[in-house]
Amino acid sequence: MHISLFDYSLPDKLIAQYPASQRDKSSLMIINKETGDITHGSFSNIVDYLSKDDLLVINNTKVIPARLIGIKEATGARIEILLVRDLGNNIWNVLARPSKRLKTGTIINCDDKLSAEIMRKNEDGIVTLKFNFSGNFMEIISKIGQVPLPPYIKRSSIKSYDTERYQTVYAKEAGSIAAPTAGLHFTKKLLDEIKEKGIQIAEVTLHVSLGTFKPVTETEIEKHRMQSEYYEITKETFPTIKMAIHEQKRIIAVGTTAMRVLESVDFNADNPKKNLSAWTDIFIYPGYKFKVVDAIITNFHLPKSTLLILVYAFAGRKLITNAYQKAIKKEYRFYSYGDVMFIT
After folding, report:
1. Fewer CB within 10 Å, N side or C side of the chain?
2. How far, in whole angstroms, is CA 72 from its chain's centroid?
Protein backbone atom coordinates (compact mmCIF):
# COMPACT_ATOMS: atom_id res chain seq x y z
CA MET A 1 0.00 0.00 0.00
CA HIS A 2 1.33 3.40 -0.98
CA ILE A 3 2.02 5.81 1.88
CA SER A 4 0.04 8.52 0.09
CA LEU A 5 -3.15 6.63 1.02
CA PHE A 6 -2.57 7.75 4.61
CA ASP A 7 -2.06 11.44 3.97
CA TYR A 8 -4.36 14.38 4.65
CA SER A 9 -4.13 18.16 4.84
CA LEU A 10 -4.54 19.86 8.22
CA PRO A 11 -4.69 23.61 8.89
CA ASP A 12 -1.94 24.61 11.32
CA LYS A 13 -4.49 26.32 13.57
CA LEU A 14 -5.97 22.89 14.47
CA ILE A 15 -2.71 21.55 15.92
CA ALA A 16 -3.26 21.87 19.67
CA GLN A 17 -0.50 23.92 21.28
CA TYR A 18 -1.99 23.75 24.76
CA PRO A 19 -4.07 21.21 26.68
CA ALA A 20 -7.79 21.73 27.16
CA SER A 21 -8.80 23.86 30.15
CA GLN A 22 -9.70 20.62 31.95
CA ARG A 23 -8.62 17.11 31.03
CA ASP A 24 -12.08 15.71 30.37
CA LYS A 25 -13.40 18.76 28.51
CA SER A 26 -11.95 17.64 25.19
CA SER A 27 -14.37 17.11 22.32
CA LEU A 28 -15.26 13.48 21.69
CA MET A 29 -16.09 11.90 18.35
CA ILE A 30 -17.93 8.57 18.55
CA ILE A 31 -17.51 6.28 15.55
CA ASN A 32 -19.53 3.11 15.00
CA LYS A 33 -17.58 0.73 12.78
CA GLU A 34 -20.63 -1.38 11.93
CA THR A 35 -23.06 1.38 10.92
CA GLY A 36 -20.59 4.08 9.93
CA ASP A 37 -22.42 6.56 12.17
CA ILE A 38 -20.37 9.47 13.52
CA THR A 39 -21.63 11.53 16.45
CA HIS A 40 -20.12 14.18 18.69
CA GLY A 41 -19.96 14.83 22.42
CA SER A 42 -17.67 15.64 25.32
CA PHE A 43 -15.14 13.25 26.81
CA SER A 44 -16.58 14.01 30.25
CA ASN A 45 -19.52 11.82 29.17
CA ILE A 46 -17.43 8.86 28.00
CA VAL A 47 -18.96 6.69 30.73
CA ASP A 48 -22.30 6.93 28.88
CA TYR A 49 -20.77 5.00 25.99
CA LEU A 50 -19.38 2.23 28.20
CA SER A 51 -21.18 -0.78 29.66
CA LYS A 52 -20.57 -2.85 32.78
CA ASP A 53 -19.40 -5.78 30.65
CA ASP A 54 -16.52 -3.78 29.17
CA LEU A 55 -12.85 -4.13 30.04
CA LEU A 56 -10.94 -0.86 29.72
CA VAL A 57 -7.19 -1.36 29.23
CA ILE A 58 -4.91 1.58 30.06
CA ASN A 59 -1.17 2.11 29.67
CA ASN A 60 0.29 3.13 33.02
CA THR A 61 3.68 4.24 31.70
CA LYS A 62 5.13 7.46 33.07
CA VAL A 63 6.92 10.10 31.01
CA ILE A 64 10.42 10.82 32.26
CA PRO A 65 12.07 14.27 31.97
CA ALA A 66 14.03 12.93 29.02
CA ARG A 67 15.19 16.23 27.49
CA LEU A 68 18.56 17.30 28.88
CA ILE A 69 20.75 20.26 28.01
CA GLY A 70 24.49 19.72 28.19
CA ILE A 71 27.69 21.57 27.44
CA LYS A 72 30.42 20.03 25.31
CA GLU A 73 33.44 20.03 27.60
CA ALA A 74 36.05 20.77 24.93
CA THR A 75 34.30 23.71 23.24
CA GLY A 76 31.46 24.92 25.46
CA ALA A 77 28.94 24.19 22.69
CA ARG A 78 25.36 23.59 23.77
CA ILE A 79 24.09 20.03 23.16
CA GLU A 80 20.48 18.91 23.48
CA ILE A 81 19.98 15.28 24.51
CA LEU A 82 16.81 13.22 24.29
CA LEU A 83 16.96 9.95 26.21
CA VAL A 84 15.61 7.12 24.07
CA ARG A 85 16.48 3.73 25.57
CA ASP A 86 18.14 2.56 28.76
CA LEU A 87 20.65 -0.16 27.82
CA GLY A 88 21.68 -0.81 31.41
CA ASN A 89 24.90 -0.01 33.31
CA ASN A 90 24.21 3.73 32.91
CA ILE A 91 24.39 3.44 29.12
CA TRP A 92 21.65 5.04 27.03
CA ASN A 93 20.78 5.43 23.40
CA VAL A 94 19.90 9.07 22.81
CA LEU A 95 19.18 11.63 20.14
CA ALA A 96 21.70 14.45 20.34
CA ARG A 97 21.80 17.70 18.42
CA PRO A 98 23.72 19.17 16.88
CA SER A 99 25.41 15.81 16.39
CA LYS A 100 27.60 16.49 13.37
CA ARG A 101 30.73 17.32 15.37
CA LEU A 102 30.20 14.83 18.17
CA LYS A 103 32.87 12.14 18.24
CA THR A 104 33.60 9.03 20.28
CA GLY A 105 35.10 10.07 23.61
CA THR A 106 33.45 13.51 23.66
CA ILE A 107 32.43 14.56 27.18
CA ILE A 108 29.15 16.41 27.72
CA ASN A 109 28.44 18.02 31.09
CA CYS A 110 24.77 18.28 32.01
CA ASP A 111 25.15 19.26 35.64
CA ASP A 112 27.83 19.24 38.33
CA LYS A 113 26.49 15.81 39.27
CA LEU A 114 25.91 14.43 35.76
CA SER A 115 28.11 14.05 32.70
CA ALA A 116 28.17 11.73 29.72
CA GLU A 117 30.78 10.28 27.39
CA ILE A 118 29.97 9.38 23.79
CA MET A 119 30.65 5.70 23.21
CA ARG A 120 29.60 5.56 19.57
CA LYS A 121 27.48 7.16 16.85
CA ASN A 122 25.14 4.74 15.12
CA GLU A 123 24.06 4.76 11.47
CA ASP A 124 20.41 5.41 12.38
CA GLY A 125 21.28 8.76 13.96
CA ILE A 126 21.20 7.38 17.50
CA VAL A 127 24.12 8.23 19.79
CA THR A 128 25.17 5.86 22.59
CA LEU A 129 26.24 7.59 25.81
CA LYS A 130 27.61 6.38 29.13
CA PHE A 131 26.48 8.59 31.99
CA ASN A 132 28.60 9.33 35.03
CA PHE A 133 26.86 10.74 38.06
CA SER A 134 26.77 11.02 41.81
CA GLY A 135 23.50 9.92 43.41
CA ASN A 136 20.31 8.59 41.83
CA PHE A 137 20.03 9.06 38.05
CA MET A 138 16.24 9.51 37.93
CA GLU A 139 16.32 11.98 40.82
CA ILE A 140 18.99 14.02 39.05
CA ILE A 141 17.20 14.20 35.70
CA SER A 142 13.94 15.01 37.51
CA LYS A 143 15.66 18.19 38.72
CA ILE A 144 17.50 19.21 35.56
CA GLY A 145 15.51 17.55 32.76
CA GLN A 146 12.41 18.69 30.92
CA VAL A 147 9.29 17.03 29.57
CA PRO A 148 10.03 16.29 25.89
CA LEU A 149 7.03 17.85 24.18
CA PRO A 150 6.52 16.88 20.52
CA PRO A 151 8.10 19.16 17.89
CA TYR A 152 4.72 20.25 16.50
CA ILE A 153 4.01 22.01 19.79
CA LYS A 154 5.79 25.19 18.78
CA ARG A 155 6.24 27.22 21.93
CA SER A 156 9.21 29.23 23.05
CA SER A 157 9.31 27.33 26.33
CA ILE A 158 7.75 24.49 28.27
CA LYS A 159 5.15 25.71 30.75
CA SER A 160 5.01 24.63 34.37
CA TYR A 161 1.71 22.82 33.83
CA ASP A 162 3.17 20.63 31.07
CA THR A 163 4.86 18.52 33.73
CA GLU A 164 1.39 17.60 35.03
CA ARG A 165 -0.76 17.72 31.90
CA TYR A 166 1.62 15.78 29.64
CA GLN A 167 1.18 12.84 32.01
CA THR A 168 -1.82 10.61 32.66
CA VAL A 169 -3.36 10.69 36.14
CA TYR A 170 -2.63 6.96 36.44
CA ALA A 171 1.04 7.11 35.34
CA LYS A 172 3.26 5.05 37.61
CA GLU A 173 5.91 3.09 35.67
CA ALA A 174 8.69 5.49 34.61
CA GLY A 175 10.19 4.95 31.19
CA SER A 176 8.45 6.81 28.34
CA ILE A 177 9.76 9.71 26.29
CA ALA A 178 6.21 10.63 25.25
CA ALA A 179 2.78 10.34 26.83
CA PRO A 180 0.19 7.75 25.80
CA THR A 181 -1.99 10.68 24.80
CA ALA A 182 -5.41 9.01 24.70
CA GLY A 183 -5.10 8.64 28.46
CA LEU A 184 -4.55 12.36 29.03
CA HIS A 185 -8.31 12.95 28.91
CA PHE A 186 -9.12 10.88 32.01
CA THR A 187 -9.49 12.42 35.46
CA LYS A 188 -9.50 10.53 38.74
CA LYS A 189 -13.16 11.45 39.17
CA LEU A 190 -13.99 10.06 35.74
CA LEU A 191 -12.13 6.83 36.49
CA ASP A 192 -14.11 6.52 39.73
CA GLU A 193 -17.37 6.93 37.78
CA ILE A 194 -16.27 4.20 35.37
CA LYS A 195 -15.50 1.84 38.24
CA GLU A 196 -18.79 2.68 39.97
CA LYS A 197 -20.62 1.58 36.83
CA GLY A 198 -19.01 -1.84 37.26
CA ILE A 199 -16.54 -1.51 34.41
CA GLN A 200 -13.23 -3.29 34.90
CA ILE A 201 -9.98 -1.40 34.34
CA ALA A 202 -6.79 -3.32 33.59
CA GLU A 203 -3.32 -1.76 33.50
CA VAL A 204 -0.53 -2.69 31.11
CA THR A 205 2.78 -0.94 30.51
CA LEU A 206 4.39 0.06 27.24
CA HIS A 207 7.23 2.55 27.39
CA VAL A 208 6.70 4.88 24.46
CA SER A 209 9.91 5.39 22.50
CA LEU A 210 10.98 6.17 18.96
CA GLY A 211 9.22 3.06 17.70
CA THR A 212 5.85 4.79 18.04
CA PHE A 213 6.95 7.98 16.32
CA LYS A 214 9.53 6.85 13.75
CA PRO A 215 8.37 8.35 10.43
CA VAL A 216 7.33 5.98 7.68
CA THR A 217 9.96 6.69 5.03
CA GLU A 218 9.14 3.73 2.81
CA THR A 219 6.90 4.36 -0.19
CA GLU A 220 5.25 0.97 0.35
CA ILE A 221 4.19 0.80 4.00
CA GLU A 222 4.69 -2.98 4.23
CA LYS A 223 8.45 -2.36 4.10
CA HIS A 224 8.41 -0.15 7.21
CA ARG A 225 10.04 -1.62 10.32
CA MET A 226 9.10 -0.46 13.80
CA GLN A 227 11.74 -0.03 16.47
CA SER A 228 10.95 -2.28 19.41
CA GLU A 229 9.47 -0.96 22.66
CA TYR A 230 9.37 -2.56 26.10
CA TYR A 231 6.06 -3.76 27.53
CA GLU A 232 4.94 -5.56 30.66
CA ILE A 233 1.76 -7.23 31.93
CA THR A 234 1.64 -8.30 35.54
CA LYS A 235 0.85 -11.88 36.48
CA GLU A 236 -2.37 -10.61 38.08
CA THR A 237 -3.52 -8.66 35.01
CA PHE A 238 -2.87 -11.40 32.44
CA PRO A 239 -5.68 -13.70 33.66
CA THR A 240 -8.06 -10.73 33.91
CA ILE A 241 -7.61 -9.97 30.23
CA LYS A 242 -7.63 -13.65 29.32
CA MET A 243 -10.95 -14.16 31.14
CA ALA A 244 -12.48 -11.11 29.45
CA ILE A 245 -11.57 -12.57 26.07
CA HIS A 246 -13.05 -15.94 27.06
CA GLU A 247 -16.26 -14.27 28.26
CA GLN A 248 -16.41 -12.22 25.04
CA LYS A 249 -16.45 -8.93 26.88
CA ARG A 250 -15.82 -5.79 24.86
CA ILE A 251 -12.14 -4.99 25.28
CA ILE A 252 -11.40 -1.29 24.87
CA ALA A 253 -7.81 -0.13 24.40
CA VAL A 254 -7.08 3.35 25.70
CA GLY A 255 -4.64 4.42 23.04
CA THR A 256 -2.62 2.78 20.31
CA THR A 257 0.09 1.78 22.80
CA ALA A 258 -2.33 -0.28 24.89
CA MET A 259 -3.65 -1.81 21.67
CA ARG A 260 -0.14 -2.80 20.56
CA VAL A 261 0.49 -4.54 23.88
CA LEU A 262 -2.78 -6.45 23.70
CA GLU A 263 -2.18 -7.51 20.11
CA SER A 264 1.42 -8.57 20.90
CA VAL A 265 0.55 -11.08 23.62
CA ASP A 266 -0.68 -14.67 23.28
CA PHE A 267 -3.57 -14.85 25.73
CA ASN A 268 -4.13 -18.50 24.86
CA ALA A 269 -1.00 -19.31 26.83
CA ASP A 270 -1.06 -20.46 30.44
CA ASN A 271 -1.22 -17.78 33.11
CA PRO A 272 2.36 -16.68 33.86
CA LYS A 273 3.86 -17.28 37.30
CA LYS A 274 5.70 -13.97 37.11
CA ASN A 275 5.15 -10.69 35.32
CA LEU A 276 5.23 -11.04 31.55
CA SER A 277 7.72 -8.65 29.92
CA ALA A 278 9.11 -8.43 26.40
CA TRP A 279 9.80 -6.07 23.52
CA THR A 280 7.36 -5.53 20.68
CA ASP A 281 7.94 -4.19 17.18
CA ILE A 282 4.43 -4.97 15.99
CA PHE A 283 3.32 -2.78 13.08
CA ILE A 284 -0.42 -2.83 12.53
CA TYR A 285 -1.57 -1.82 9.04
CA PRO A 286 -4.62 -2.58 6.85
CA GLY A 287 -5.10 -6.29 6.40
CA TYR A 288 -4.17 -7.05 10.01
CA LYS A 289 -6.59 -9.41 11.80
CA PHE A 290 -7.29 -8.11 15.30
CA LYS A 291 -7.24 -10.84 17.96
CA VAL A 292 -8.07 -9.00 21.18
CA VAL A 293 -9.20 -5.38 20.85
CA ASP A 294 -12.85 -4.56 20.07
CA ALA A 295 -12.80 -0.78 20.53
CA ILE A 296 -10.27 2.00 20.95
CA ILE A 297 -10.07 5.47 22.47
CA THR A 298 -7.48 7.46 20.55
CA ASN A 299 -6.44 10.98 19.61
CA PHE A 300 -6.25 12.39 16.08
CA HIS A 301 -2.90 11.47 14.56
CA LEU A 302 -0.33 12.89 12.17
CA PRO A 303 -0.57 12.19 8.43
CA LYS A 304 1.44 9.19 7.19
CA SER A 305 2.17 8.06 10.77
CA THR A 306 2.11 4.48 12.04
CA LEU A 307 -0.56 5.61 14.51
CA LEU A 308 -2.91 6.77 11.77
CA ILE A 309 -2.18 3.63 9.75
CA LEU A 310 -3.18 1.53 12.80
CA VAL A 311 -6.49 3.40 13.08
CA TYR A 312 -7.15 2.85 9.37
CA ALA A 313 -6.50 -0.85 9.90
CA PHE A 314 -8.96 -0.96 12.78
CA ALA A 315 -11.88 0.96 11.31
CA GLY A 316 -11.30 1.12 7.57
CA ARG A 317 -9.86 3.81 5.33
CA LYS A 318 -13.20 5.13 4.07
CA LEU A 319 -14.71 5.60 7.53
CA ILE A 320 -11.63 7.17 9.11
CA THR A 321 -11.08 9.47 6.13
CA ASN A 322 -14.66 10.65 6.54
CA ALA A 323 -14.20 11.06 10.29
CA TYR A 324 -11.06 13.17 9.87
CA GLN A 325 -12.78 15.37 7.30
CA LYS A 326 -15.63 15.95 9.74
CA ALA A 327 -13.17 16.67 12.54
CA ILE A 328 -11.41 19.29 10.45
CA LYS A 329 -14.71 20.88 9.42
CA LYS A 330 -15.84 21.05 13.06
CA GLU A 331 -12.42 22.35 14.08
CA TYR A 332 -11.47 19.53 16.44
CA ARG A 333 -8.05 19.98 18.02
CA PHE A 334 -5.41 17.55 16.73
CA TYR A 335 -2.43 15.56 18.03
CA SER A 336 -1.07 15.11 21.57
CA TYR A 337 -2.94 17.90 23.37
CA GLY A 338 -5.92 17.60 21.04
CA ASP A 339 -9.35 16.01 21.08
CA VAL A 340 -10.25 12.35 21.00
CA MET A 341 -12.30 9.69 19.23
CA PHE A 342 -13.97 6.52 20.46
CA ILE A 343 -14.13 3.85 17.77
CA THR A 344 -16.42 0.97 18.62
Report:
1. N
2. 31
All structural domains of the chain: 3-63+163-343 (3.40.1780.10), 67-144 (2.40.10.240)
Cα distances (Å, whole numbers) of residue 118 to 35, 97, 98, 103, 121: 55, 13, 14, 7, 8
The runs of H, that is alpha helices, within the chain are 137-144, 162-165, 188-196, 210-213, 237-246, 256-264, 306-315, 317-329
| Sequential pLDDT tens for the chain (344 residues) | 999 999 999 999 999 999 999 999 999 999 999 999 999 999 999 999 999 999 999 999 999 999 999 999 989 999 999 999 999 999 999 999 988 888 999 999 999 999 999 999 987 789 999 999 989 999 999 999 998 999 899 987 788 899 999 999 999 999 999 999 999 999 999 999 999 999 999 999 999 998 787 889 999 999 999 989 999 999 999 999 999 999 999 999 999 999 999 999 999 999 999 999 999 999 999 999 999 999 999 999 999 999 999 999 999 999 999 999 999 999 999 999 999 999 99
50 phi/psi in degrees, rounded to 5: -110, 155
